[in-house]
Structure formats: C-alpha cells, structure tokens
Amino acid sequence: MQPIPLQPKHEETIVAAVDTSSMKIGETATGMLIAVRGANVWKQNKSYRYIRLGPFIFHITEENKKEVYNALQRAYFNSPHEQNQSSPNLLQMPTRIANLLERWLQTMLTKTINNGLILFDGSLTSGTADTSTPLMKEILETARKRRNVVLAFSKMTTLRCNGHLITDILLEHKPPYLLETAGLKTKPPIVLLGDVYVARLTKGNYAFRLDIDKQVAPEQKIEAVEKLLGNDLLSQSYPETLRLAHILCTFTANEVIAMQHFTAQAYKLKIINRPDMHRLLFGPFGKGENNA
Amino acid sequence: MKLYKKEGNIIQILSFPNETVEKGDYLLIEDADAGKALIAQVIDVQFASIPGILEELLRSLPDGGELIQGEDFDPLEIAPHITYIQDASLLVCKIRATVENESLSPSSSWLPSRSQSTIKKLPIPTLIKLAKIDGKLPIILGGTKDSSLLTIDATSLDGRLNIITGKKETGKSHLSKLLMLNLTGYKATVVVFDLNGEYISLGMTTDGKRNAYHDKIHVLTPSENFKVALKQLNLHVLLEILIHALHLPGTSAREFRRIWQSLKERDMLNMHELGETIRNWHCNQHVRDALFSRYYALVNSCFFTDNVAEATFLEECLFKAKEQGGAIIINLRNTSPIDRQIVVEYLLAKFVELLTSCRLKAIFLFAEEAHLYLRETYWDDIVTRMRHFGIFTTFITNQPDTIQENIYRQADNIFLFNFTNEHDLEVVSRAARVDAETVKSIAKDLPPHYCLGLGRVVRDFPMVIKVKALDVKTMGETRLFFKDMN
After folding, report:
1. Number of domains in chain A
2. Which of A162, A242, B401, B429 is the most core-located residue (most Cβ within 10 A)?
C-alpha cells in the first residue's frame, strides 16, 4: 500500500458538518420516550457557526411506531424512498429517527453550500435498513451539482486488510497522508457510494476510515482532503467541524433530566423505572443490561 | 423545594430558581402525616450537583474560549427546562427545632417524609411568635432579612454575659449604644468603659440638641470630674491597684499594708500624709524607692484627691441611675494605659462593694476592648464571681482572640458582625451556644451594620439583624485626614 502524501491547501473553502444523536429518555407503561437532535456546523471566515435542531421528543409505542416513522419520512423527504421497508423494531427507533433527521440535515447542506466540503459522520455505505441507496445517491448528486465534495469520517470500522483493521495500519510515513483501499466488495443490497481511504491527517496514532464520493474525480478527492487540512482545525486526525457537530447534538445528563422534567410537566407522562433484571438476578455479578 | 438528605442535624434541600432562599433564612419542613414540622436555617447555598453540568459548560465554550455563534431551533422549548435544572441550588440547613402542637422542642431525632413533606420559607415574625423572642420589655434591635422588626426582650440580657464582636467599622459600638440606651429606658443602671470617648455625647441628637436620654447620661472623666479620696478606699482595693496595675513587689506590698494601718489609726488617710509617711518610714531603701515610685504614679494619675467633696460624683450618679435608670460613661479616652487600669480596678472593687451591701441592685457593664485595661485574672472574676453580685457584662471587641476561650464558652448572647478572617471566626465559634458551621458560613457574608444574633436573646434561633439607626451623636467616627478634600 502506497501512501498518498497531502499538502494543506489554504484556498478559502467552507467546511460544513452534520451530526445527530438520539437518546432514550425513559420508559412509559406503553412504550418509550425518545429524543433526537441534530446539528449543522460550518466554518467560514475563520469562525464556526451552527444551527441546532431539537431536541424533538417522541413517545413511541408498538402501536404508533410505524405511523410516526412514515410520517417523518413523508415530512422530511416528501418521497417514499423507504416506504416499502418494514417498520423498525421499537428498540431501534431512536437511531432510525435520528437517521432520518441526519439525512434531512445532509440534504439541506448539500442544497445550500457551494464549492464546499461537507463532512458526514459515518460511511457512504447505502442499502442498509436506515440508508436507502436512492436517497444517498440523491444527496451526493445534489452536492456534486453545487461543486461540493462529501467526505464521510467513520470513527469505527470493521474493514480489514490482511486480518488487521484498516485503521490500525500505520505506515512509517509522516502524516498527513491517505491510504487508498482497493477491491472492497459488498453483498447486495449494500452499496458503497464512496471510495474508501484510511486518513491519517495529524501526528499520533489516530487514523480514520474516510469515504469520498465515488463520482468525484480522483485528483479532486485528494484536493478536497488537502482543502480540509488547510481550512479546518484537525486534532487527533479528526476535523474540528465534525467534532463540534457531535458535541452540539449530544445529550448531556443534565438535558436528559430537563427533558424528563418537560414531559412530566407538559404531558403528565409518568416515567417508569423498570428494575434491572441483571442486577436483580445476579446481584453484584450483574453488570447491568447495557453492559451485559 | 424538595428534601434531599439529612445527616445529623444538617439537612440538605433542593431548591429551584423560582424559589428565592438566602443564607440565614428559616424554612419550615412540614410532615402532615407525622403532625410535626422541622425548623431549619439555611447556612449555605450551593449549586446542586447536576449530572452532565461540566459537559454543558464546556460545550458552550469550544471556540478558543469564545462563545460559538449559532442558532437553536427548539420547538418544544426545552431550553428553559435545562436552565431550570442547571440553576437548581442545594440549601445546606441546620435543624433548629421541631414544632409539634405549636410548641417548640430542640429535637432533630425524627425524619420527615422525603416525598410528602412540604417545604416553605418561615417568615421571621412567625418564628419570633413561635419562639416567644419578644417579651414584656421589648428592645427593637432593627430589621430582619424579610424587613420585619426584630424585637428582643430586655430580660434576656439580665444576668447574662454578652459579646459584641466583628471587624472594624461594622457597627459594634452602634449596637452596644442601642442596647445600653434601651436598658436605661427600663431604669437599668449601665456603666460603660468608654475607651475612645464614643459614648460621651449620647445625650445629644445628631444635630446637637438634647435628646430623651440627656438626663440619664452621666459622663465621668477620671482626674477631671471623677476622683477618689483615699478615705473612700479599702486597703485591698488600693493593694490590688498597686500590685496588679503598678506591679508592686510582695515585700513592698507588706510594708505598704503597715503604712496604711498606721495612717488609718491616726485618721490621716490622704495623699499628702501617705507621701510623708513613706518618706519617714523605717524600712529598706529599695522598698522605700519602690513605694515612692508607685506613690508618684498615683499622684501623677490625678485620680486621687484629698478633697472628699470632689470624690462623690460616682456614687451620686450611681444612685441617681438606680432611681430612674441611667448610664455612667467612664471616659477613658485621654487616660494612659496604667491610669486606665487604676480606674478600672477601683471601679470594679467599688461596684462589688455597693452590690454586696445591696446599695445597688445590678449593673450592666459595657466594656469596649477590655483587654486594654482588664488584667488577665479579672476575666474569670467578672463572668463568674461578679455576675453573682449583679455585674452583667457585655464585651465589645474587634479582636475576638483577646477574649479568653472560657469567656466565649460562658457567653449567653453573641452579636456577631462581619469577619472575613477564618481565625477570628474560629475563635468565636468556640462559644457554647453557637455551632461553628453557622458562624463561619453566615458571618462571612454579613454586610456592614448587619449582625448575627446568637444565644438567649433570639432563643437560640440565630438571626441576621440589620441594626437600626440611632438619633444620637455617636462620636464613633474615625477622624480622617482627607475628609475635607472630597
């Protein structure tokens, strides 16, 4: 594998990022309360700005989950990209709704920014339960029309090369550089809409999987990463804009309490504290359901 | 407000931003099922430990220390709820009493229901009524935190040891003047050791006119209108002065006793004869020199006179005060340290003499910075022995460590003004009727002219008092060099 060395390009370019988060804030007798929030952050004229949407709180039950999901899809996209899919499992609802919000926020960025870099959290893999291929293709196409390049950073990856995680392959080469992966194949209906790279953008042992829109010319892809180096702060190989998007949408414990307070005050919803069966059955040997 | 935790007699209460509670406020924690309520005083207000608060604060400052600019679209208006939770405070309270059937007991042994108890602010007038703080002889000290008047009972000062302390210029002397004037109003006899001449004009209003107290204020200035004749003195009083104020050695004191007996037998107890007798007395030259040096110290103080008519003013004032109440101000302003000790030694002995012979009923003694004229062995004497004779002392000081620890332990009432120094607060908190946490927490934040009343006067319910203004010429102001330049 040959590293592709990078030179920061300081040509003024907008860097924008999207992230969303979801949180189960409690259980009720019939379902659960979830909250989602998303943030768009962009760096322009050397300062960061953001738009944060939410929190949006939903009371999801077995009875209303399909209706809620479809209603949101219709509201966000006005097109039935995923209408044929089965409705999600109740426990998956927080991430599925957050995903809808994330795709909408990504669409909004691709429609409003020109000649910019748009950073996504995750990969450009589509055809999964929460990312339809037509929708993802549409987002990337809109971005290209406005001469934007989409860069998707994955914090975690399962892709391996010679048995090693691709992000663990650290070459004796001075960062910043990219490593291009070749020959990645996926099983249908999963589709890779981006070329996959390993990005080591700063000193230190941090590297991330970076997906860059396949339809962008190869030299443009490298130039896009070089513009990112020249226009955004990078710490631990991760762009600050994307880090801020994550920080701004993540729920703190304080906010969870506030939302529980809000639902109790506004809707008189009573949150139930269900016993932790692991703790109940195994005492000190039960590590709690989340850690089992 | 919600009950959160109880440890010993400290109770922690969660309070929300729309509930305004401050240090010093009283809360009533009522458990309707138990039919009882706890009275607790807020001694500290802290931020409630909210999970995730650090992340919340860090998130708001990610852009090189400057607030990141942006817009929040919050359709459900969750943000006010977040602020509400973030601004929640934790009230650390000290349990003061339990109310059951409208009667108070100091117990804190029961636990009110955490989920069912109701917590509300207890208005000071209600507490005063419950605790029966105001009595038949009211003294209005000033206002409380909720702007109601705080009235104490004069009997709560009767037979008691009081301490007024606080750092400079916080209003200690002002409070002592308020107390003594009110006591004279109830026909009490008050004696003030006035170190700085602050009390001498109490009979005048601020604009220089005579006020209601004018005829009750008697100013005695040693060596001017206040002198004593040797004939009026007992030998032991003079020996106390010679030994303790003038440090006369034991051998010389024995010789002086013989001289005194000789003069007394010849009915020639006067300063002139005393000098002559020392001069001609057959004794060791060193003893004679020692006696002479003390004799001249007595003469130079100008406090002693051979004219008995000149030496009757103190008793006249005391008896006048006994009849209609009054304050005898001993003006020690221009008196040297040694002369101050001579005067004080004489006065204390005189008071004991008058009180033991029942010629006086009782004396309320106000002693400013007593360490400057009271010898060490007298402290205990004043608070224990002399109290039984009827001398009820109020010490006023800005140096609390000059008062011995055992005095604090016996103090019945403490009026504590602002102190910022931990050491000073540590000293005061040794008082038996005070808990250290209350003193340290509340006294630090007291503004000028506010004091924390502790002890019997407030029935052991510490209260923050804004001491009321007096229409008297106080003379306690410090003379300033730059005053006229502003």
Report:
1. 1
2. A242
The tens-digit pLDDT sequence of chain B (486 residues) is 999 999 888 999 999 988 989 888 999 999 999 899 999 999 999 998 888 788 877 776 655 556 688 899 999 999 888 888 888 999 999 999 999 988 888 887 889 998 889 999 999 888 888 888 877 899 999 998 778 888 999 999 998 999 999 888 888 888 999 999 999 999 999 999 998 888 888 888 888 888 888 888 999 999 888 899 888 888 988 998 898 888 999 999 999 999 999 999 998 999 999 999 999 998 889 999 999 999 999 999 999 988 888 877 788 888 888 888 899 999 998 888 889 888 988 888 888 888 888 888 899 999 988 877 776 667 777 777 778 888 999 999 888 888 888 888 888 999 999 888 888 888 888 776 778 888 888 888 888 889 999 999 999 899 999 998 887 776 655 667 776 665
Mutation site, B73, B81, B84, B87, interface A, largest A CB count within 10 A: B81
Chain B residues within 8 A of A48 when measuring between CB atoms: 62-63, 68-69
Angular region, A37: left φ>0, alpha ψ -120 to 50, beta rest: beta
Interchain proximity B81–A49, CB inside 8 Å: no
Q: Pick from B122, B150, B175: which residue ends a domain?
A: B122
Range of the domain at B260: 228-301
CA B220 to chain CA centroid, Å, is 23
B53 to A265: CB separation less than 8 angstroms, yes or no: no
Instruction: State the number of CA atoms in the 13 A half-sphere of B73 facing the CB.
Output: 10
> Residue A48 and residue B68: Cβ atoms within 8 Å?
yes
Q: Do B263 and B343 share a domain, yes or no?
A: no
Residues 6+ apart with CB under 8 A from A262: A57, B76, B78, B81
- Chain A partners of B85 at a C-beta cutoff of 8 Å? 254, 257-258, 261
**Same-domain check for residues B180 and B251:** no
pTM above 0.90, yes or no: no
CB within 8 Å: B74 and A47: no
**Token digits for B66?**
């400057």
Cross-strand pairs, B394: B162, B366
**Are residue B285 and residue B374 in the same domain, yes or no?**
no
Q: Which of A49, A244, A262 sits opposite B78 (nearest CB)?
A: A262
B248 with B271, same domain?
A: yes
Does any CB of chain A come closer than 8 Å to the CB of residue B81? yes
Contact A249, A21 (CB under 8 A): yes
**Inside any domain, residue A288:** no
Domain count for chain B? 3
Q: Is B316 on the interface with A (CB under 8 A)?
A: no
Q: Is B133 among the domain residues?
A: no
Residues B29 and B84 in one domain: yes
3-class state of residue A152 by DSSP:
strand
Task: Out of B281, B301, B321, pick the residue that ends a domain.
Answer: B301
Contact status of A262 with chain B (Cβ, < 8 Å): yes
A272 and A27 Cβ atoms separated by less than 8 Å: yes
This model of the complex carries an ipTM of: 0.84
Distance of CA B374 to the CA centre of its chain: 17
